[in-house]
What we know:
305 residues, mainly alpha
Amino acid sequence: MPSSVGYLIGAIVLSAGLFFGLWWILVSGGDEAPWLPAGLAASVVLLVALSAREVVMRRAWTRYLLENGIQQKPSSRSRSSSRSQKKGFSASLHSAALRAIQKQSSAADRPGSAPELHLDVAQLCHDYLASTDEAIRSGSHGSEKGIALRASQDRVRALHRHHLLTWARGQSQLLTYEAQQRARTSDKIETATRALDCLDSALRIYPDEADLSESRVAIEGFIASVKVAHWVELAERSAFKGHYRRAIDRYRDALFYLNQDAVKEDVRTAGTQKIEREIEKLKARLRPANGTHQRNTEDSGPNND
Length: 305
C-alpha cells in the first residue's frame, strides 16, 4: 500500500502552493482580502484529496482481504499447525471483508449517492462470493464455520442483487436523461445504447426483473423514435427542395423504424398514418410532373406531316 505520510505531505504541499499562487494573483489584482478565496480553494483541494484517498484505500483494503490469505501454503515444519492457523486467518479475513462490504453498502444506500457506488459494492460482493466458494470447496473450515460462511454468503448475495439492480436502474436513468439532452442524433443513440448495456449486464444475472425489462423496452422505443424523427426531418428537407422521390424513400426509412416492436401500438398507428399521408401527397406532386414531361416529349417529336 502507498505511504500515507508521503500522500499527506504531497496533498499539503499542493494545497499550500495553490494558496500562495492564488494569493499572489489576487494581491496583484488589488483584492482587499486575497487570503479568503485562496484559503477556501486550498482547503477544498485538501479535503478532496483526503476523501479520494479514503475511498480508494478502503476499496483496496477490502480487495486485499478478499484476495490474500486463502491460498497460503502450509509450512514444512508443522503442517497441521499451519493448517489450523490458515483456517483462523482465512476466517478472520472473510469476517473483515464482510464488515467492509456492509460498511460500503450503508454508504452507497445514502440518499443522493452516485450509481457507481452501488456498482463498487456489487463488485466487492462478487469477489467475496468467489473467495468464499473456493474456501468452502477446499474444506478449510469446520462444519460450524462452514455453516456461518454459507449464512454470510446469503447476506452477501442479497446485497449483490440489491446494489447491482440499484446501479442498473440509476445509471440507465441518468444515461437516458443525458441522451434526451443531446443535440445530434448519433449522440442520442450512442448514449441511449450505453443505458441499454447497463440494463443488459444486470439482466444477464437477474433475468426475472420485470422492471428492468420494461425499462429496456422503453429505451428501445426512445431509440426508435429518435431514428424516426431523424428520417422524417431528412424527408421534409428533401420535399422542401423538390426532391420528391428522395423524400418518399426517406419517409419509408422512417416507417421501417416506426414499425419495430419497441414502439407503442398507438404511437405506431398514428405515426404510420401521418407518414403515409405525406407519401401520398408527394406521389400526387410527382404525377402532374411526369405527365407534363411526357406531353412535352410528344410535342417536341418529329412531324411527319
